Amino acid sequence: MPHILHIDASANLTTSLSRAASAALTAQQGGTVTRRDLAAHPLPQIDGPWADARLTDPATRSPEDAARLTLSDTLIAELQAADTIVIGAPIYNFAAPASLKAWMDLVARPGVTFRYTPDGPQGLLTGKKAIVAVASGGVPVGSDIDFLSSHLRFFLGFIGITDVDILAAKDVLPPVAA
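^ that's the sequence the OP posted. Answer follows.
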């Protein structure tokens, strides 16, 4: 049975198009679902001690450094367990909301979700599919001024998820009767 990681990033908890579209896409996938609501349960921003801890060899990490990485480890485990990642994301000021950027910062871990090779970076989360439902009030999805879609596609590929569909949330949902 497939496992879906369903992530929502919209600050609008009640009437969000990206939330409605990601819920519809998740339901279409079938299987078990892990839910991560980045607005209802905000993630912390990374800081210097966290950045240092992620680069420390796990064998020599202090208990404090291990504790700093606990949430990151949990978020990465959710990604590792998922066959499909469904993300509902609004475009805020032409790009990703801070909540989604915080998630990206916490899951990008050298040696865990990617590694550097002589040929360049290599993503370690391969064999997964991502479906992103993007909502925008005025920025056409996929346009030159939609920096969220290209950034998210690049980021997901960087960590190994190269099968990425980006859909306009309004195209996922049934038309609203006038």
